[in-house]
Amino acid sequence: MNSFAPLLPLVAAAALLGGLSVSGCAPVAITAGTAAASAATEERGVEGVVSDTAIRTEINALWLGHDVDMFVTVQLEVVEGRVLLAGKVAKPEHRVDAVRLAWTVDGVKEVINEIQVDRTRTIDEYSRDGWITAQLRAKILLDREIASINYSIDCVGRIVYLMGIARNEAEHERVKAHARDIPYVKRVISHAILKDDERRRKG
Questions:
Q1: What is the pLDDT of residues 51-63, one digit of tens each?
Q2: pLDDT of 202
Q3: Is the Cβ–Cβ distance between 11 and 46 less than 8 Å?
């Protein structure tokens, strides 16, 4: 029997919450089987996806319970226990609280804080950031030399943040190059690590 079977309900739930979807704005119709197959193709594997989804869910719950505005404005990515926080918040204390709460969750190995304090972000800026994200997702999805499933993308204030696991440095550079080629992008900051990075072997 498939050793991943006990994990399938969790993977399916993660997919329905948007953890495995290509776009949080698009309707998602996915079965447990296809969710597991998708997760299994990632470098972190099914167990890694399930663990990261549990961490993500718990952090989001803590943020929501602490402050709704912080929950709405801070973006979150988790890859093998490495947590990337991005977004713009109106209150400096939200930046501090988001990091503090993330560290309280079991399984978190690292918290990368890219949250900006800015009270002036407009609807147009949100829309442009979303457009940039969609363009980059499409570019790396269509590039046969990139395993796009291994990358997470956030865009805040026209700054692109990358998270994930690169199979090699050439692939990593291709992803960053695609990001830089998109109109309006000001800067690309990558927190993706290589497949053989020593940090992946730490407990």
A1: 999 999 999 999 9
A2: 62
A3: yes
The third-level CATH classification (topology) of the domain covering 123-201 is Histidine-containing Protein; Chain: A; (3.30.1340)
154-163 per-position pLDDT tens digit? 899 899 999 9
- The mean pLDDT value for 56-84 works out to 94
Per DSSP, the residues of the chain read: --TTGGGHHHHHHHHHTTSS-S-TTS-----HHHHHHHHHTSTTHHHHHHHHHHHHHHHHHHHHHH-HHHHHHEEEEEETTEEEEEEEESSHHHHHHHHHHHHTSTT--EEEEEEEE-S---HHHHHHHHHHHHHHHHHHHH-TTS-GGGEEEEEETTEEEEEEEESSHHHHHHHHHHHHTSTT--EEEE--EETT-GGGG--
d(CA 139, CA 195): 21
